[in-house]
Please model this.
Amino acid sequence: MKYKQDLIKILNSNPKFMMYLETAHRLGLKNYCVGAGSIRDTVWSYLHNINTVKYKDIDLAYFNKQEDRIKEEEYEQQLNKLGLNVEWDVKNQALVHEWYEQKFGIKVKPYTSIEDAISTWPEPATSVAVYLNPNNQMQVIAPLGLDDLFNITLRRNKKRISQKIFEERLKSKDMVKKWPNLTVIRS
Model:
């Protein structure tokens, strides 16, 4: 995969991101990953020569059909009690279909895997996640590739996000101001 080694190098060089990834790894979840905005912000800060990444939250996704939403909330509370100065957002992707329609007004089918779930995240640039394997080596999940992430390009993932929601996300996250080299593709 193009840019895979670049991504691993950038993430490994960021002590704060690695602390969050190692913290997630220590939970012992199978089929877990850290991804979305934390990876986008780390890479785009690096590409913009910004030394400090301000993480709003850390998205920890995992896939376990045997667990319920209560367990998901327990993991989130456990992580948020660690005092790492970041909000953790923990979601069992095997359960997203149970609550997504109520929250966003769109019915979704159950995901078949963590990769299937990541392929529907809002933008290709944020449809990226990583995890540590049993040998503590970083593994990359990027079902839509890494081109948009490394080309500092933002476009909606048409699998899930409407143009209206994309525009709202763009505005609410102030991305154009935050990332001066950002190319936005509206379609």
Summary: The two ends are 25 Å apart (CA to CA). The CA atoms of residues 57 and 86 lie 5 Å apart.
